[in-house]
Amino acid sequence: MRGRVLVIGAIVASLVLVGAYLAAGGSSYAPEKTQNPCKPRPWSNPQSLGEIANQFTNSALDGAACQLGVSRETLAQALATPEGRKRFAEKYGITDAKLAKAIRAGLIRAVDDAEEAGALSPLLATPLRATLQHIPLKEAIELIQDAKSLLGNVQSFLGPASGIIEQFLP
Amino acid sequence: MLVSFNLVMALAAVPAALLARRVGPGRAAAVGLAIFAGAGLACGLADSLSTLIVARCLQALGGAAAVTAALELLPAAVGSERRAATVWAAAGATGAALGPAIGGLLTELVSWQSIFLLQVPAALAAAVPILSVAKHEAATGVIEPELRRTGRPHVWANLALAMVSAAIAAALFLLVLLLIEGWRLSPIEAAAVVSVMPLAALAGARLSELVADARSRAAAGAILVSGGLAGLAFLPKATVALTVPPQILVGVGLSLVLSALTETALGGRAPQAIHGGWTISARHAGVVIGLLALTPIFTHDIAQQRHDAINAGTAVILDSPVNPLLKIDLAEKVSERLEEERGKVPTIGPAFEPLPSDPTERAEVVQLREELQDQLNRGATHAFSTSFLLAALLGLIALFPIALAREVEL
To answer: Domain of B242: which CATH number?
Structure first.
């Protein structure tokens, strides 16, 4: 076999392999990029109270993260465990009070997003927003002690209104 | 620790070859193998990292003496210097390809210590046929003075060897690390996967015999090694099967390029032990440079990709339709896994056990687990991309000295 044939064969084999892997998505096989929390998050048509709670939580996290200048995912990790919250506070220099204020602002944004998406009637959004605006800071800080209590509180807050909310579901 | 053996090999190969010329290859090889065996025993029994490092350095000293002296002994066994150079070069290429597979197998089946302990009888067995040569040298004493003259080493071939060796070391080391640390395969599974490379190297050795021109073989080999490494850099999915085609390219390539460059470096040069020493030195220096240059890069990339994968995984959890309270339970368990396996790619399966009994909820949780694992796999795979690409680049840069390397007939 001639040397030139061997070299050409090597070039072709290499190009075919790399080309095939690139065509199959090899250059973009990496973790998904996180979304900018300050951009509005599209709401899908919720079919149940659980879906509303999910979308409401995501919008609230987006709103709070946007205000704190971090990603929604970073904030969610901080709220997941007390250790996570401690690391978050040390890394970003954010106090519990500042975090609680951001969460309150996030909850209000969630109501705005839901209303804007047509998932929440203005008749319901207005009193919800007013209630959220008046959550005392001390209570807001208690809300962020752990994620479960935060969600539990959101659900208990939504609980009495669930009957009304379900009437507004599409 | 990682490069201590290669560093000592790189530094000791030429002095060891000079010593072999002075005392005789038989005696040098016998003593070298004895030191290698003794140090191997010390490695296997080492109770601390520092003992292991010292023993590995001693092994490298013994190994350098044995390997370079072997090149002086081979012509008598195989008939000619040219044939000796070919056999010696092929043995080096095969060893480079076989190492990780055998190491992984022994680590999983027995222990990492067994790798060293098994080297003891192997080295002693290799020393047995050399003893008669060593005895003869002891009786007759001297090497003819004219053979002590040494010519200049083949700079371009040795430079190319160093670059290609850096790329190959990266291929072997990074792939094993990707399989075990990234994709969480056991050492024996990883050994089975990387055994593709030595098998392909055997095919490459057959191909070598069909082409006489060493420069073409070296160029084709370097291109194949680079192509294989680029393939590993652009894996489109974290699937073992997709590592096979790149490994075939690297295996065939390393067999072609290492043997061709070693033959070129030795061609027309005497004494062979000294020039063999230069090739050993170049190869191990390449391994040291490759690992030292790429280790900080992939270490940084692993940390970055772990962070990105955890963020992407968090997004998957937040966006999943799973019941919010169950979601928080899962997130807490996943966080615990991350804490437990801090610095590693976590195994998240246990965080999802037991699965919910409700069929709809169970399906949602299973889908969430798969999506989360996908993000972690993406991160683990992508963490090695830059390092594989840089290693591929080293292989391509080796084409310049290969183009300048002139083959001299023996």
So the answer is: 1.20.1250.20
Complex ipTM more than 0.90, yes or no: no
Interface test with B, best of A36, A73, A143, A154 (most B CBs within 10 A): A73
**Positive or negative CA dihedral for B54, B56, B59, B65?**
negative
What pTM did the predictor assign?
Answer: 0.82
Mutate to test the interface with B, among A2, A5, A14, A62 (most CBs of B within 10 A): A14
C-beta atoms of B378 and A29 within 8 A: yes
Contact B235 A26 (CB under 8 A): yes
Please tell me whether residues B349 and B229 are part of one structural domain.
Answer: no
Question: Do both B288 and B323 map to the same domain?
Answer: no
Same domain, B311 and B266: no
Same domain, B247 and B315: no
Which of B211, B224, B305 has its CB closest to that of A13?
B224
Q: How many domains does chain B have?
A: 2
- Chain A residues close to B251, C-beta within 8 Å: none
Task: Check whether residue B271 and residue B339 sit in a common domain.
Answer: no
Buried b / exposed e over B126-152, threshold 16 CB at 10 Å, is bbeebeebbeebeeeeebeeeeeebee
Residues of chain A with C-beta less than 8 angstroms from the C-beta of B311: 31, 34, 71, 73-74, 77
pLDDT (tens digit, 9 = 90+) per residue, A20-49? 999 999 999 988 888 888 887 777 766 666
Q: Which DSSP state fits B321?
A: -
pLDDT confidence of residue A160: 46
Q: Which of A169, A103, A72 is nearest to B316 (CA)?
A: A72
Do B45 and B125 reside in the same domain of the chain? yes
Q: What is the pLDDT of residue B238?
A: 92
Whether B410 is covered by a domain: the verdict is no
Least confident interval from A31-35, B86-90, B168-172, B245-249 = B86-90
Set of chain A residues whose Cβ sits within 8 Å of the Cβ of B216: 2-4, 6-7
The residue range of the domain holding B341 is 301-382
Same domain assignment for residues B363 and B390: no
Largest CA distance in chain A: 84
Q: Do residues A58 and A72 make contact, with C-beta atoms less than 8 angstroms apart?
A: yes
B409 assigned to some structural domain:
no
- If you measure CA to CA, which chain B residue comes closest to A2? B211
**B96 and B140 housed in the same domain:** yes
Cβ neighbours of residue A43 closer than 8 Å, sequence gap 6 or more: A55, A59, A113, A114, A117, A119
